[in-house]
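Please check this today:
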Amino acid sequence: MRKQNPVNDTALLEDALRAYLNRRCRRAYAHDLRNGLQGIFGGVDALTRAARALKPMAVPLEQVIQFVQQAISNHERGLERVLESMAPEQQVAAEICLRELLTELARFLTNDAARNNVRVRMDFSDDIKVTALVSKVRLITLGLLAESIDAMTSGGELRIAGRTVDSRVQFEITDSRPQPRAKSFITEAIQHVVKELSGHIESNPTASGGNQVRVELPVA
């Protein structure tokens, strides 16, 4: 029997996790893209009305043009985020502000949390910056947040916290799920990606009956 290559195994798990999250988050991606398009449509409509107006508009034309340009830029950045999340290109390690990333992903999953009646709280003592591959860190954080929200189908609370301790950063995702956190393909894949970044992950039940996942990653 041919011995499996652990590097290839990790890559396959990572690809499978990304494919799962792409399907899982398709409505959230679509919502972001629709919002971007609506901003552009609103600006184009304002420009059309300005061109047809017989009297000067209350808003200067230059301001309307700036609004349209900003809406186009926002939509371009949104498209880049979606493409980078769904099919990331080869990257080099870069500095990542985990506070900003976790905040962005919590906002990204706002509608998912609302559908499950999940309240989201955040508590960061600093920016908790790491130097790593953005695509891998994003995969870990999005996977953990989505898994927690999906585990609270009858409502609950999700708390995101983080801090820097010596040469490592720590962040926790604590939820009030009614059942213990079961092992699954998602938990295994996330564990492998964390390990690939020389990090550590642990999951423990909380005193109140929920669950807390703690991830530690090296600063650099």
